[in-house]
Amino acid sequence: TRQMPEMKILLLLCMSSCFTAKKSPYDKSEGVLVLTDKNYDVAVAEFDYLLVYFYAPWCGHCKALGPEFVKAGQMLKEKDSVIKLGKVDGTEETELLDKHSVTGYPALKLYRKGQLVP
Predict the structure, then answer these.
(1) Alpha-carbon distance 36 to 26, whole Å?
(2) Has 100 been annotated as catalytic?
(3) DSSP character for 25?
(4) Which member of 18, 31, 62, 100 is catalytic?
């Protein structure tokens, strides 16, 4: 059968694309980037506009803001917006809290073209 070599080539091409595909440095939770000490600076540099939400799972205000933040992220994604939303669990990423002077929850930090907007 003459199709067999063509199928093998197609299969090899598909397999090689799987191995060469770049894995994103970000996990996503409900469309919001999960930021950690390992990927925070990369995200700030990569996205033109990034709004970061520092939270603690036990914080009452965070529990109220969290679902609204997710809704905003989904709306921005639907509109194919350049604005990205990220979140940092302050109970897991204590070094980021210190590095970015986060002293309470919730805290929001907006970055534009890699720079913190005061």
Answers:
(1) 9
(2) no
(3) S
(4) 62
Among residues 14, 18, 31, 59, the one annotated as catalytic is: 59
Active site residue 18: no
Percent of the chain with pLDDT over 90: 73
Contact 40, 88 (CB under 8 A): yes
In the Cβ-directed half-sphere of 49, how many Cα atoms lie within 13 Å?
7
The length of the chain is 118
Closest by Cα among 35, 29, 30 to 47: 35
59 is catalytic: yes
Instruction: Select which of 31, 60, 73, 100 is catalytic.
Output: 60
CA distance 13 to 36: 34
pLDDT digit string (tens) for 81-109? 999 999 999 999 999 999 999 999 999 99
Are 53 and 71 spatial neighbours (Cβ–Cβ below 8 Å)?
A: no
